[in-house]
């Protein structure tokens, strides 16, 4: 198969979906692997490295879209790329489809076979770990006086107390952030709705962190004495209330910091997305760091870890076909987002109120033994297509 590694063009995105290591494996399998020139440059991988691994270097993404049956990148398909997509082409990338209607429209219109990478990870995405660790670091950076913060240092100094930090949400992102904050000497409080997870994280750190059930009452009481808030909650896109509203933000001390790693509109009222070029803004006296692709700042480490994790998906699809691969791997199956003009992603159907069809049905693998996988979110939809014609 002709497999293409696209150069990501999102502002401040320096990761690459495959390193020369993965190119060597794929070419060793007998595939033609095309790599856009400069795709891995900011992550520490030069064109020469890819060429030595057997990659075919192209000058533009346009050449890859036009040549390859299967294309992959790290972040969303940008508007400038919509017209480059070809019918029947396989696309693997982070799509975040429920939040990007125009992107979904393009995937459906072009009748591609699209997998949303963030839903395909059996053991959690390395990008989540990277976002949590780098996000905690960026939050402490934002707290420095020259960046508009209060000037507190993580572990404190002789006679000066350490930073008091809250981590909202204790999934992979939150746990990664906690690790950095604790190791830097911060006083950390973790808030979550799951008592079991709170018990687990408290035990891991021998009771040296505080835990609290996540609700407005508790957050309202703790925010005025907090220096840093790390948000790693995946907030329901149809939620009717904020987790942290403007009044709660205003209750925080001037120069404190909110680092919103999750980037979900509707969770923190004062949130709006920022970029690596202009990462912070101040509202209600609080510094907000809201970069949507934080792992792009540590592109070298993240690319190595992420590329290794997605290589099995690439090989599965190439060697077994889309239907066979989805039968073998439930996490890949649940990440199928668009198939030849039909939406196959339940959360997107529920949030955007558009019809969908289950991946196993459109792939006609319902009667086969299917590898199980949990649902990606709590959003459900019974808005099915009345008729599917392929």
In short:
The chain is of the alpha/beta class.
Structure notes:
- By secondary structure, this protein is of the alpha/beta class.
- The protein contains 13 helices and 15 strands.
- The protein has helices at 20-28, 47-52, 61-67, 101-109, 126-142, 172-183, 195-204, 216-222, 246-250, 299-328, 330-335, 346-352, 359-362, and strands spanning 2-5, 32-36, 56-58, 70-72, 90-93, 113-116, 164-168, 187-192, 210-213, 228-231, 257-260, 280-283, 286-289, 336-339, 342-343.
- The protein is globular and about 65 Å long.
SSE layout and pairings?
Layout: E1 2-5, H1 20-28, E2 32-36, H2 47-52, E3 56-58, H3 61-67, E4 70-72, E5 90-93, H4 101-109, E6 113-116, H5 126-142, E7 164-168, H6 172-183, E8 187-192, H7 195-204, E9 210-213, H8 216-222, E10 228-231, H9 246-250, E11 257-260, E12 280-283, E13 286-289, H10 299-328, H11 330-335, E14 336-339, E15 342-343, H12 346-352, H13 359-362
Parallel strand pairs: 1-2, 1-4, 2-3, 4-5, 5-6, 7-8, 7-10, 8-9, 10-11, 11-13
Antiparallel strand pairs: 6-14, 12-13, 14-15
Helix pairs in contact: 5-6
């Amino acid at each position: 198969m002709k497999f293409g590694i696209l150069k990501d063009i999102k502002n401040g995105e320096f990761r690459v979906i495959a390193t020369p290591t993965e190119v060597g494996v794929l070419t060793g399998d007998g595939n033609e692997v095309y790599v856009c020139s400069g795709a891995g440059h900011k992550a520490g991988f030069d064109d020469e490295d890819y060429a030595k691994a057997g990659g075919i270097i192209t000058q533009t993404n346009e050449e890859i879209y036009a040549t390859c049956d299967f294309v992959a990148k790290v972040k969303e398909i940008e508007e400038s790329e919509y017209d480059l997509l070809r019918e029947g082409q396989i696309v693997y990338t982070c799509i975040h489809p429920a939040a990007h209607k125009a992107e979904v429209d393009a995937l459906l219109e072009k009748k591609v076979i699209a997998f949303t990478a963030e839903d395909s990870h059996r053991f959690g995405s390395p990008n989540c770990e990277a976002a949590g660790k780098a996000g905690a670091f960026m939050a402490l950076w934002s707290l420095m006086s020259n960046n508009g913060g209060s000037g507190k240092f993580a572990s404190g100094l002789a006679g000066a107390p350490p930073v008091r930090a809250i981590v909202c949400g204790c999934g992979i992102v939150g746990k990664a952030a906690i690790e950095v904050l604790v190791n830097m000497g911060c006083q950390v409080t973790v808030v979550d709705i799951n008592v079991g997870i709170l018990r687990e994280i408290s035990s891991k750190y021998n009771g040296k962190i505080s835990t609290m059930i996540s609700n407005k009452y508790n957050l309202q009481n703790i925010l005025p004495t907090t220096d840093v808030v790390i948000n790693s909650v995946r907030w329901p896109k149809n939620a009717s209330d904020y987790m942290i509203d403007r009044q709660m933000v205003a209750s925080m001390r001037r120069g404190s910091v909110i680092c919103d790693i999750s980037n979900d509109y509707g969770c923190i009222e004062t949130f709006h997305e920022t970029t690596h070029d202009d990462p912070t803004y101040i509202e209600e006296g609080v510094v907000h760091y809201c970069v949507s692709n934080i792992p792009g700042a540590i592109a070298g480490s993240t690319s190595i870890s992420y590329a290794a994790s997605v290589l099995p998906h690439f090989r599965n699809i190439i060697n077994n076909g889309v239907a066979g691969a989805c039968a073998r791997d439930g996490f890949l199956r649940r990440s199928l987002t668009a198939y030849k003009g039909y939406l196959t992603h339940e959360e997107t159907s529920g949030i955007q109120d558009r019809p969908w069809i289950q991946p196993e049905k459109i792939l006609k693998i319902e009667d086969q033994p299917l590898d199980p996988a949990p649902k990606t979110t709590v959003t459900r939809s019974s808005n099915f297509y009345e008729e599917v014609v392929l």
